[in-house]
Write a structure and sequence with these properties.
5 strands; 56% helix; binds adenosine-5'-triphosphate; ATP binding; ligase; Rossmann fold; binds magnesium ion; 15 helices; tryptophan-tRNA ligase activity; aa-tRNA-synth_Ic; mainly alpha; three-stranded parallel β-sheet; Tyrosyl-Transfer RNA Synthetase
Length: 358
């Protein structure tokens, strides 16, 4: 039996951070043997809110690819590909936009949150509002059934499946599979500032390539419990970013539970929990940073990985697009190859009649 297909990706808006690791990368690493995995460098989606700065989007293609390779994504098992070089994704997006309403797009909770966070007001780029349809195109073009993502993405997978059901209904058969999100326990890592989500655009991230000093500074400045002034005071664990990170990255869950109890009772200082977290993050990030520095010396190799992956993805996505267009009964010019102009015109007329008759 063939392996189930995974599709995920990241917008090429900046180097990846701990939120990506907790939300999605760790699952991708775990599943790269048991699944046929595709990772999309989503430069087109990055443009939906960065159209004023295409150079940034372009520059970060290699950065994100370097992060993939540095954390252990293996191009022999996982296909890394570039969104803007896969025209079928754009073509399917155009098609899918007819299967979703503006009202539904506006109701999508993720889109609502992101519009608010970006302060768009009424000036929402149309591409941004419509990116859930583009994401549906990405997922379905690869025939993915498994999508490892952070918790913020759950409503987008739901919307993808709605589009899939409508396409299948219009085609009269299940031409596309539905997909399921895999969301880990720590599905939404907050920013170091305590804001709901660590994000590249939020300026509240610890990069997977952060230096030891950057990690130290970020942990020192981390939001804890503003009411916890003296060591002996009882402290709050809820909403305390240091504990949220310990939950996500400290493998010793029992140890963390004990610390939480001590902190809540009083008698445990912020300094102590921050030191523990810093040690864990330094140990997690150091090998990634070193591998990344090694790989960055050979950008030609990284480029080769993306080129090869994109070629493989091109074949796959073109095939799906054809199948969907055919299943919907769109007009086909490719059934016969006419020899000259006269034959071509006759053929066109014949195809037209045939189409009318169906
Ligand atoms: P941007 O700010 O440009 O939107 P981002 O940091 O939100 O960037 P994306 O490229 O939008 O990153 O997200 C890629 C993937 O990483 C998605 O699956 C998303 O759910 C996951 N992810 C991003 N940030 C977090 C986070 N803080 N916690 C958990 N998962 C996250
Ligand atoms: Mg995002």
């Amino acid at each position: 039996m063939s392996k189930p297909v995974i599709l995920t990706g990241d917008r090429t808006t900046g180097p990846l951070h701990l939120g990506h690791y907790a939300g999605s990368l760790s699952t991708r690493l775990r599943l790269q043997d048991s699944h046929a995995q595709f990772l999309l460098l989503a430069d087109m989606q990055a443009l939906t809110d960065n159209a004023h700065d295409p150079a940034k989007v372009s520059r970060n293609v290699l950065e994100v690819a370097l992060d993939y390779l540095a954390v252990g994504i293996d191009p022999a098992r996982t296909t890394i590909c570039l969104q803007s070089h896969l025209p079928a994704l754009a073509e399917l997006t155009m098609l899918y936009l007819n299967f979703v309403t503006v009202a539904r797009l506006e109701r999508n909770p993720t889109i609502k949150d992101e519009i608010e966070a970006r302060g768009f007001g009424r000036n929402i780029p149309a591409g941004f509002l419509c990116y859930p349809a583009a994401q549906a195109a990405d997922i379905t073009a690869f025939r993915a059934t498994v999508v490892p993502v952070g918790a913020d993405q759950a409503p987008l997978i739901e919307q993808t499946n709605e589009i899939v059901r409508r396409i299948n209904a219009a085609a009269g058969r299940a031409v596309l599979p539905e997909a399921r999100a895999i969301i880990p326990k720590a599905g939404r890592l907050p920013g170091v500032d305590g804001k709901a989500k660590m994000s590249k655009s939020g300026g509240n991230a610890i990069r997977l390539s952060a230096s030891p000093d950057e990690i130290r500074a970020a942990v020192r400045a981390m939001f804890t419990d503003p009411g916890h002034l003296r060591v002996e005071d009882p402290g709050r664990v809820d909403g305390n970013v240091v504990f949220t990170y310990l939950d996500a990255f400290d493998e010793n869950a029992e140890g963390v539970a004990e610390l939480k109890a001590r902190y809540t009772r009083g008698g445990l200082g912020d300094g102590a929990i921050k030191r523990r977290l810093e040690d864990i993050l330094q140990a997690l990030i150091a090998p990634i940073r070193e591998e990344r520095a090694r790989l960055a010396k050979d950008p030609g190799h990284v480029l080769g990985v993306i080129r090869e992956g994109t070629e493989r993805a091109l074949t796959k996505t073109e095939a799906t697009k054809r199948e969907v267009f055919n299943a919907l009964g769109l007009f086909r010019l490719d059934r016969r190859k006419p020899a000259g102009r006269e034959e071509a015109l006759t053929e066109l007329a014949r195809l037209g009649q045939e189409f009318d008759a169906t």
